[in-house]
Specification:
With about 80 residues, the chain is α+β, with helices and mostly antiparallel strands. It is built from four helices and two strands; from the N terminus they run ααββαα. A two-stranded antiparallel sheet has the order 1-2. The longest helix is centred in the N-terminal third of the chain and has 16 residues.
Length: about 80
């Protein structure tokens, strides 16, 4: 039986398409954590303000996601990212 991490690794190595890769990572993350919903954010370049950009969501609507806007991330969050 393949683990969720193995499936994510396979998706990363099988596709150069960012949208598909993020979709698989989001799907596997939600399933592995038994969450009811999830979202993936990408960190924008510094010249774009360094804010987080929603890249995908599952089990959420746009209105719910807007409540969790993180722009710009705290210095600690930026270091972690």
């Amino acid at each position: 039986i393949r683990t969720g991490f193995q499936r994510v690794g396979e998706a990363l190595s099988a596709s150069l398409d960012l949208t598909e890769t993020l979709r698989v990572i989001l799907q596997q993350s939600v399933e592995m954590t038994h969450a009811t919903a999830g979202a993936v954010y990408l960190l924008a370049d510094a010249h774009e303000g360094g804010s987080l950009r929603l890249a995908g969501m599952r089990g959420l609507d746009r209105r719910s996601v807007r409540r969790f806007r993180l722009s710009p991330p705290s210095p600690l969050a930026k270091r972690a990212l």
